[in-house]
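Duplicate of earlier report; Malate dehydrogenase input re-posted below.
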Amino acid sequence: MMHSFAARAARAAASTKTVRKASNVAVLGAAGGIGQPLSLLLKADPLVSGLSLYDVVNTPGVAADLSHCNTPATVTGVTGVGNAEEALKGADVVVIPAGVPRKPGMTRDDLFNTNASIVASLAEACAKACPNACYLIISNPVNSTVPIFAETLKKHGVYDKNKLIGVTTLDVVRANTFVAENQGKDVRDVKVDVIGGHAGTTIIPLLSQVPSTSFSDADIEALTQRIMFGGDEVVKAKDGAGSATLSMAYAGAHFTSQLLKALDGQSGIQECAFVESSVTDAPYFSTPVTLGPGGVSEVHGYGTLSAYEQDVLDKAVPDLIAQAEKGIAFAAK
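Output:
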């Protein structure tokens, strides 16, 4: 007999020794290359009490497989085109990696026509089924899909800028990894803020602000380019077999976990994220944000930039504006 998502989550929460805020997480695109490892990591997160998986195919098998993991989170799976609302009822956080992956030679923008339609339809389902949830957008191109999601929520009168977040954490994860390698440091001791957007030259790592580091001009150029185009590195290495799925799942799970901690009442949690912003002329922009009980509680600036970083930023802002406008125009159709 099928029990409700909320009832199962309540039982899972009651079964834990420490009473904490029960968080129900839905993953849309859960059977895909990002969705499966992301769902596995979330199943292991102690702050996830209910995990609801949705995809157009293969979801029951993924849900059955994950349900055998001996962690408290209960798992359900919903499959089929147009059935997302069933998976979304009672969700506190919705993580969306749905869409087609990049193939060799494709830019994130090449994905736009296919993924824009997918994201718009999922935003419709979210607006109807869980209008008060926090939405974490992974589906590329993020610089355009976040504005599409926002415009769709606005049509339904349920848009809250603090609860719609584009996940750019993979850029930070790459930056931390590459800088640690370059500087001979333990990666756990490195924290690089990455601002801008989540595509190519809109990705701006603030290497000048990383403490206890020393970069040559050549280092800065090479590291910045590698962080900007790290996704291409993976697409090429996989030789037509996919894009960055495992590292994206890791990054997505990290951000989700940080948000769950904030929803649970932990203070002082900061992550870089792509949100509605007045920091630049771009309507959506990634900078460090503080997470709180209602999603994003504060959007921060980016501090003092080097001349190199300022030049990259000046070139990126017009692109970010154009990519947001592309998403807004799509949603208006």
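Residues 154 and 160 are 9 Å apart (CA to CA).

Merging into the original ticket.
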